[in-house]
Design goal:
Length: 92
């Protein structure tokens, strides 16, 4: 298995043998069989620098170290310590 990365700013739809389809969003990675890299359509995207072939590791381990690679913090309401003081914290 090879890991590929979409380096364009548009989503890609890649069709492989057997009717399989891989949808890659902008900047996203996905895994494809080694034989799929040899297809003419995939080779054209690689030579146009739209796709980048990475090592065969898992897709989630390839994303990191870059700008915006940290997961977004999910909060509901106010962050702890940022809310208004409760009645017990006001001293009265």
């Amino acid at each position: 298995m090879k890991t590929i990365k979409n380096k364009s700013f548009k989503p890609l739809k890649l069709t492989f043998s057997g009717g399989k389809v891989l949808y890659l969003g902008p900047g996203k990675t996905g895994q494809v069989p080694d034989a799929a890299i040899l297809q003419k359509s995939i080779q054209a995207l690689i030579s146009a620098a739209t796709l980048e072939v990475m090592d065969g590791g898992p897709a989630h381990s390839q994303e990191g170290g870059g700008k915006g690679s940290a997961p977004h913090e999910t909060t509901r309401g106010h962050k702890p310590g940022m809310s208004t003081p409760t009645k017990s914290q006001r001293g009265g």
